[in-house]
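User: What would this chain look like folded?
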Amino acid sequence: DALEAGLNAVQPKTRTGPLNNAPPKIIFSTRPAILVSIDGPAAYRMVAGTGLQRVLNTRVLLLKDPAGQFYLHYLDGYLEAPALDGPWSMAARPPIGAAVAEQQARESQQVDLLEGQPGPDTGETPSLHTSPLPAVYVATTPTELITFNGEPQFVAIAGADLLYVANTSGNVFQRTSDQHTYVLIAGRWFRAPSLNGPWQFVPGNRLPHDFAEIPDSSLKENVKASVPGTRQAEEALIDNSIPETAAVPRVTEMAASQFDGPPKLEPIPGTPLHYVVNSDMPVIEVDDRSWYACQNGVWFASTSVNGPWIVAASIPAVIATIP
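Assistant: Here's the prediction, encoded as structure tokens.
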């Protein structure tokens, strides 16, 4: 408290960069669901020693066999589909070579196998054979998934002209006076006439005053950190001003980046930068002799897209201009 009070007294300056506030596609599901995000069109790489291809530009283990069938590793098994957009069902057996692909994925430490968390009571990891089969949404553009435990259940907030959906971990509200729906995603507010959209970005300073009036005793008090002018927003700003550091050995090595064919560059809108679209990790070209990549939160630098990569002592300021 003393530290926050001191920082509040000196009014900490915050750095802000350009924001792309275009609404993402927002999917609501009333059953368990998975969102598989692919960074643009799927880029593939052969899995060594198998006939399988892996989709590089996604964090999950997504495979394609020689017949064109897709397989998604989930819990202790696989879901399969004839195309990326489904329909997805439980695979009777893993594709030939799946064990090799899994081993390589674990060794890379870059792939999320969607294995689930052990139960707090049993300590057992969930199984695909005993868990509800989820809906699978594959997205190649910015997309958010909000799941409800059944049909949305709206609950009134005392002292505010708002309802909130109680049976979700997301932040979904309805303003009773105009029936508009509001969602909070990544610290930003979006509004639509209904859950079906169309969505538009709402700047924090144009939010209805009802959000600032959410009682501090409410289960939804935490959203006030994203409502300008509230105590929670001021505390969040101060907390974000306290720097956090970590030591990274200069000898840290970056795993070699994998490309789907020759590296393919595309411009990053609003900047003079380019990035490799068919890579398994973010690789950015500042100029012909300046390349930067980010892996596990650590920045690496190279004079060539093919490496070798060394830990970056700093990164160019222009990278901070990426929206």
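The radius of gyration is 23 Å. If you want, I can go into more detail on any region.
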